Amino acid sequence: MSRAGAVRPGEPVAIAPDVFWVGALDPDLRQFDIILRTANGTSYNAYAVRGSKGVAVIDTVKAEFAEEFFARLWSCCRPDEICAIVLNHLEPDHTGALPALLKAAPQASLYLSCPALKMLKGLVKESLDEARIIAVDEDTRVDLGGRSLRFLYTPYLHWPDTQCTWVEEEGLLFSGDVFGCHFCDSRLFNDSVGDFRFSFDYYYQHIMRPFREHVLTALDLIEPLALRLVAPAHGPILRDAPANYVRRYRQLASPLLANEAGGREKTLLVFYISAYGNTERMAQAVRNGAEGVEGVRVSMYDLAGGDPGPFVDLIEEADGLVFGSPTINGDAVKPVWDLLSSLTLVKVKGKFGGAFGSYGWSGEAVGLVEDRLRGLKLRVPRPGVKVKLIPTDEELEGCAELGRELAEHLVGRVAPRHIDFTAPNALTA
Amino acid sequence: MPKAQVTFEDIGVTVTVPAGTRLIEVSEKIGAGLTYGCREGECGTCMMKIVTGSEHLATPSVLEDKVLKENYAGVANRLACQAQVLGGHVVVRPG
């Protein structure tokens, strides 16, 4: 027995007058893009918009689902009616059927953002007639006859190319991955499907959160729209109270931890873990040094006493990070790596960073952590402090100096420095 | 040895380097806020602003010029992974 309201194979679904869902369902998917899990699959949402002058196709589907996509598409239009193909996002789960669609509708123009142009050649390996490819901006209007498409450039949600397509006459936003989620329910609409709130938030946290600033910029563009329907590229179509989901994005993108100092203070977090108390003493010295700089709030955390999740929330709001790790078997220790490998969930680019640690005979941890911080695009303005076994008072003063200098960077009071790289041993300066 | 000076404005550090040095070779060592992606002049991640002294940088290659245009670069923008300092004093900052 089929479920009431469930989409049937090969049939498009009208989501607005002359606007159809022509996507595909993938209920068996359990892991997406390596980094996301899904307990009930996903959908690849593609759409067809009919005007008196022709049909626009908005996005396609993952390659394995092309047959399902074309079955629906050819049920609502002929290939020669397609005048526009819009790609809101070029990731393969939305462009898998593009090469076949381009062949089936050779008269259609391809509309995409400027950054998407660079990626297109990586996806469509056959030569493309450049006259068919149109890079759009906010002034572009595609007239379909009786309705038109406009474009909102919403970069980094979650690739550089991402954009939304707006059909003003219908109050309809094709939002790409924004407002999407991995939740497969054949009833399609948010007022018909099961409870997908967890999936909506989970998708935001794993896909959009690293680009929080870009989310807020995009919301400034989206919130003024008179939305009646939001049609994302994954998950339920949002026809009941779509503005609620826009509001939810605003909540999710707002700082999780309010700083009661009102943003006047800079924050420096000192994370450490210690086997014999030596790295802990170094951490205390780093903290003490940083606390001597006015305007910097310093907090210290023992990684042995916490999980990465809450620390990631703290780090997202912090201005500077220092990591202390002993060296064991030539490496930093696992709790340090566990936290450092969790930081792709948030934006850390441009924060100040540093490292320190005690070691027995080789001391690789500090350099390895610094390399990781640079890889995450933090600024590491001075070499870290490595101490062989028990730190002396002089070495602890070096740790305090590390903390002090990082704190001075945070408040912009660091003294100008000059380094002569043409001098012998300059690299260790 | 012909030398050049580069000031990384965001962290207040000035370096003296051999003429011909690419900025990528020194900026990370001193912790400047220039960040890199592909490091090969393709992605545009390391676009920086030349505050003063742009005349002391080698002219952009065809590749750098193309990527700058694709990323809507202004006249003061260069790619840190490509730009070579030839002499004099150049002041740069992220962006």
UniProtKB/TrEMBL annotation, chain B:
A Pfam family that the UniProt record links to this protein: Fer2
Gene3D superfamilies, per database record: 3.10.20.30
Any one Gene Ontology molecular-function term assigned to this protein's record: 2 iron, 2 sulfur cluster binding
Lineage top rank: taxon: Bacteria
Residue ranges of domain 2Fe-2S ferredoxin-type in the record: 2-95
InterPro entries with a match to the protein in the record: 2Fe-2S_ferredoxin-like_sf, 2Fe-2S_ferredoxin-type, 2Fe2S_fd_BS, Beta-grasp_dom_sf
UniProt name for this protein: Ferredoxin
Species assigned in the record: Parazoarcus communis
